[in-house]
Specification:
The structure holds 2 protein chains of 2 kinds. By secondary structure, chain A is of the alpha/beta class. Chain A has a single domain, classed as Aldolase class I (TIM Barrel). Chain A is built from 12 helices and 9 strands. The radius of gyration of chain A is 17 Å and the shape is globular. In chain A, 53% of the residues are buried. The model of chain A has no long low-confidence stretch (mean pLDDT 95). By secondary structure, chain B is of the alpha/beta class. Chain B has 2 domains: 149 residues, 3-Layer(aba) Sandwich (Rossmann fold), CATH 3.40.50.1100; 218 residues, 3-Layer(aba) Sandwich (Rossmann fold). In chain B, the strands form 4 sheets. Chain B has a 6-stranded mixed beta sheet, sandwiched between helices. Chain B has a 4-stranded parallel beta sheet with strand order 7-6-5-8, sandwiched between helices. A two-stranded antiparallel sheet of chain B has the order 1-2. In chain B, helix 9 packs across helix 11 and helix 10 packs across helix 11. Chain B is globular. The chains are: A alpha/beta, B alpha/beta. The interface between A and B is large, with 39 and 34 residues.
């Protein structure tokens, strides 16, 4: 079993649940600045197993048009890390599922990594995904800090990640490994079925960490397909698209989650 | 003090490779192979032949007599504007296309601001028969129309970047997203000394042919191989990196960098990164960056599309921090006037980018004995519309 020094809701979730874990991504401050807690509560109520809250950035390199647009709107609405931590201050009185923060390194760097980890932990955040944080820099500068604040750090792997690097990532990960399904930005249009060989390879790689597949997961069929090869899957863009058109957040979120779970 | 890149890809506190995993294999491959490829004899002989027969190198070092008289010093112009395609950018694209071929890549992508790098990339792709996609901000497509048409005529596809400020920064974002989506068959020819390591070093090495020639040509003309000043404009900073490169360790040579002050450094419409920026991460590199307190990147402004970038290459951030180079923020108006002056005095219409370099001359308190080299990085043909349309705004 996984040897980890970290105790948090995320680690516990993966101990208890091995299959069909549904992880939903949404951008903080979108559609409206103060929707964060409302969306979190609706997601928990509807049966999402965990959530990733996107910390919006002006130049999201790995994101497609949908998440770019939601990030822009969120920033226009006034979202920032300060505002987000303020919104999340009492989140644990209302929401119990694991919460991760996902975003780009620069805003976190300006906020201060130590201050960021400290506040994330104080709010009850369980993990962090910073795709442009280099492995070595995490290991040398921040791993101790993450441990101290019981934050899981999640790394991505892609179809081009070498077996050696996959192993290294597995060693440094505490939580789950984020399997990027195809070579694409978020909201890509590639067919996830085309990733079968790669997903199969990851499944048989004897990783010590659980895995979740993300990118190109947009409906029940892609979600079910991904779940065959991993402990669950992550949906972002399709969820954001739904939020963009929603007139009743609670109802539409419930409907969306039901459409995935079937 | 060391000014070249260290083994981890850093220039002092700046540089590195802050990239998402999707880009890692390509960057790692470049990091592991670029030095051995670009220093190999076969590569160098092929590249040097291209530089000589196709690009037109060496470019002249021209003694600008009337400009010298005006400023009371000996001023030489390094005529990168005479390179094939009209700017220094082609030094880098010829190098990178050969590298891409050695890596077995079939498709080339690039970002462009003023369109000079886009044209230089489209040109070498035509030369090598490779597919070429150039990303360009929607605003820049509008203000650099002739270059857009040139790229198309050369067979490249020009894709507009419609996100953010719709300029160079956003074109770079789109190119990176393309590379994430097409990592196997595609090479990304970055046009400046920006981006994740090893790009800043690789591009600087390709551009260093500029200062290599300056040294030799200056020795022939003046009997000394180092000037008192080398002046260049800095957006990302590739022409400056090339012009400074072989003088970095010669402390007697003052390195002068002209960045875009836009409508005024504190006007809210500026790209003066060393004044307004603080350490941050843009396009995979830790460098000086114009950003909000919350770490959101600020949209810059410059009259010249090629300097309209909110960061600078990590080498330049290091040269600034270590005080090895002196930076001047040149306003749109100053650059415009410097261009008019050069046209009248020397019969040379410079690119608006290069005009920023000339506009530092009044600030330098030059002595009669001073030998000054200005890197005239590009010609002004592409800017004729701006020169025509905004003439009244900037005339006294």
């Amino acid at each position: 079993m996984i040897h980890t020094t970290i105790e948090n809701r995320l680690v516990r979730l993966f101990k208890e649940k091995k299959q069909n874990i549904l992880n939903i991504y949404f951008t903080a401050g979108f559609p409206e600045l103060d929707d964060t807690i409302r969306i979190l509560k609706a997601l928990e109520k509807s049966g999402a197993d965990m959530v990733e809250i996107g910390m919006p950035f002006s130049d999201p390199l790995a994101d497609g048009p949908t998440i770019q647009a939601s990030s822009m709107k969120a920033l226009k609405n006034g979202m920032s890390l300060k505002v987000l931590f303020n919104q999340l201050r009492h989140v644990r009185e209302q929401v119990t599922i694991p919460i991760l923060l996902m975003g780009y390194l620069n805003p976190v760097m300006q906020y201060g990594m130590e201050e960021f980890c400290k506040n994330a932990h104080a709010c009850g955040v369980d993990g962090v995904i910073l795709p442009d944080l280099p492995l070595n820099e995490y290991k040398e500068k921040y791993q101790t800090l993450f441990h101290q604040y019981h934050l899981s750090n999640v790394f991505l792997v892609t179809p081009q990640t070498s077996p050696e690097r996959l192993k290294l990532i597995d060693e440094l990960t505490e939580g789950f490994i984020y399997i990027v399904s195809t070579d694409s930005t978020t909201g890509g249009n590639k067919n996830i079925q085309s990733a079968e060989e790669y997903l199969h390879r990851i499944k048989n790689a004897n990783l010590r960490n659980p895995t979740l597949v993300g990118f190109n997961i947009k409906d029940k069929s892609s979600y079910d397909f991904a779940c065959r090869y991993a402990n669950g899957a992550i949906i972002g863009t399709a969820f954001i698209n739904m939020l963009s058109n929603s007139t009743d957040l609670e109802k539409d979120i419930e409907c969306f989650i039901r459409s995935i779970r079937g | 003090m060391k000014y070249t890149v260290d083994e981890n890809g850093f220039y002092g506190n700046f540089g590195g490779a802050y990239i998402p995993e999707m880009l890692y294999p390509n960057i790692e491959q470049l990091r592991n192979t670029y030095l051995s490829i670009i220093t190999s004899e076969s590569f160098l002989s092929e590249w040097h032949q291209l530089l000589r027969d196709y690009v037109g190198r060496p470019t002249p070092l021209y003694y600008a007599k009337r400009l010298s008289e005006l400023y009371g010093a000996s001023i030489y112009l390094k005529r990168e504007d005479l390179c094939h395609t009209g700017a220094h950018k082609v030094n880098n694209t010829t190098g990178q296309i050969l590298l891409a071929k050695k890596l077995g890549k079939k498709r080339i992508i690039a970002e462009t601001g003023a369109g000079q790098h886009g044209v230089a990339t489209a040109t070498v792709c035509a030369l090598m028969g490779m597919q070429c996609v150039v990303y360009m901000g929607e605003i820049d497509i509008e203000r650099q129309k002739p270059n857009v048409e040139r790229m198309k005529m050369l067979g490249a596809e020009v894709r507009p970047a419609t996100s953010g400020s719709r300029t160079l920064k956003d074109a770079t974002n789109e190119a990176i997203r393309d590379w994430i989506t097409n990592p196997v068959d595609t090479h990304y020819i970055i046009g400046s000394v920006v981006g994740p390591h090893p790009y800043p070093d690789m591009v600087a090495r390709f551009q260093s042919v500029i200062s290599e020639e300056i040294r030799m040509q200056l020795a022939e003309k003046t009997g000394r191989d180092t000037p008192d000043y080398v002046i260049a404009c800095v957006g990302g900073g590739s022409n400056a990196a090339g012009a400074f490169y072989h003088f970095l360790d010669d402390k007697s040579v003052k390195l002068i960098a002209a960045e875009a002050g836009g409508k005024g450094v504190h006007s809210g419409y500026s790209a003066a990164t060393t004044v307004l920026g603080k350490t941050g991460i843009i396009h995979g590199s830790k460098t000086l960056l114009m950003q909000t307190e919350d770490g959101q990147i600020i949209e810059p402004h410059s009259i010249s599309a090629g300097l309209d970038y909110p960061g600078i290459g990590p080498l330049h951030a290091h040269l600034f921090e270590s005080k090895r180079a002196t930076f001047y923020a040149i306003t749109d108006a100053e650059a415009f006037k410097a261009a008019m002056q050069l046209a009248k005095l020397e019969g040379i219409i410079p690119a608006l980018e290069s005009a920023h370099a000339f506009a530092t001359l009044p600030y330098l308190n030059l002595k009669k004995s001073d030998v000054v080299v200005i890197n005239l990085s590009g010609r002004g043909d592409k800017d004729m519309l701006t020169y025509i349309n905004r003439k009244h705004e900037f005339s006294d």
